[in-house]
Design a protein that fits this description.
Strand content: 15-25%
Order of helices and strands: HEEEEEEEEEEEEE
Number of strands: 13
Structural class: mainly beta
Largest sheet: 4 strands, antiparallel
Distance between the termini: 163 Å
Helix content: under 10%
């Protein structure tokens, strides 16, 4: 404001003193004495002297102006530290933090930022925290419970890494773990008997004796012996009691008695059957006629034999 008034006053004085003289054109402004901000600089001019004037007046020869190089850089400066924040934990060792800002003033117009840290940390202590238990690593698997085929093995772990203390929680999960183990060798399987079969028909090993036995059987297949297992102990065949007329023996047929004669007109007839005993299985049939027939003579009461070979079937 003061500078502006001064410039106006100098112009007024120069016009008053020079009267009707005419001034030369103003010269170039002097260089600005600063590299940033605002500052005064000057320019000069000369007057054309009249016949009555020997020297130009000093006033009015110089003009003072203001040059503006733009705002100067402002380096940032730290504010005051804030209060420490509460401790980061409710038990055990924690931290407290306080902060400050680079805003007193903040950096501007290319000024440098603040040097140093914006945060400051210190330790803080609270009462001891509960320690919750954690599992150790699993142990190695135990030996298989069998030496052949399929069995079980197990492994374990301890809640000691660390153990629970100060009212801490115990470990969650299982302490023991089991799994199937398979051995390379197969276990021997001893044979066991199946149930007895039903009693069979009467049979014999000597048909001449005409006496046989009822027989039943069983098998060593429940299960079969495998992988060097033992065979069943005992008998495969069981015989019970004695029976007659074994089914596995053949019997040759034998003739029964002749029947009584039966007469019809001029024919007399009698028969017999091969049933004493009947032929069985591979036995031979009866040999001979099963029927006798006689014819009456027309000239007498005598009968004559007429042979007809009938076999019993």
């Amino acid at each position: 404001m003061y500078f502006d008034i001064l410039v106006v006053w100098l112009i007024f004085v120069s016009m008053t003193l020079c009267g009707d003289e005419r001034w030369e054109e103003w010269g170039e402004w002097s260089s600005c004495p600063v590299t940033c901000g605002r500052a005064p600089h000057v320019r000069h001019r000369s007057c054309k002297l009249s016949e009555n004037q020997k020297v130009c007046p000093e006033e009015g020869q110089e003009d003072i102006g203001e040059c503006d190089k733009g705002p100067c850089p402002v380096d940032g400066k730290w504010s005051q530290w804030s209060d420490y924040r509460p401790c980061t934990v409710t038990c055990g060792q924690g931290k407290r933090v306080r902060t400050r800002k680079c805003n007193n003033p903040p950096p501007a117009f290319g000024g440098q930022g603040c040097h140093g840290q914006s945060t400051q940390t210190t330790t803080c202590s609270r009462s001891d925290c509960p320690i919750h238990g954690k599992w150790s690593a699993w142990s190695s698997w135990s030996d298989c419970s069998v030496t052949c085929d399929q069995g079980i093995h197990e492994r374990s772990r301890m809640c000691n890494n660390p153990p629970p203390s100060l009212k801490g929680k115990d470990c969650e999960g299982i302490k023991f773990q089991t799994d199937v183990c398979v051995m390379p060798r197969r276990c021997p399987i001893d044979g066991r008997w199946s149930n007895w079969s039903e009693w069979g028909v009467c049979t014999t090993s000597d048909c001449n004796k005409k006496i046989g036995y009822w027989v039943r059987t069983r098998l060593c297949n429940n299960p079969l012996p495998m992988f060097e297992g033992k065979m069943c102990k005992g008998q495969f065949v069981d015989k019970s009691g004695a029976c007659f007329d074994p089914e596995n023996c053949s019997t040759d047929g034998g003739w029964g008695l002749w029947s009584s004669w039966v007469c019809h007109q001029n024919i007399a007839k009698r028969i017999r059957f091969c049933d004493n005993p009947p032929r069985r299985k591979l036995g031979r049939e009866c040999v001979g006629d099963s029927t006798n027939i006689y014819l009456r003579s027309q000239s007498s009461n005598m009968f004559y034999t007429r042979f007809r070979k009938w076999k019993w079937k």
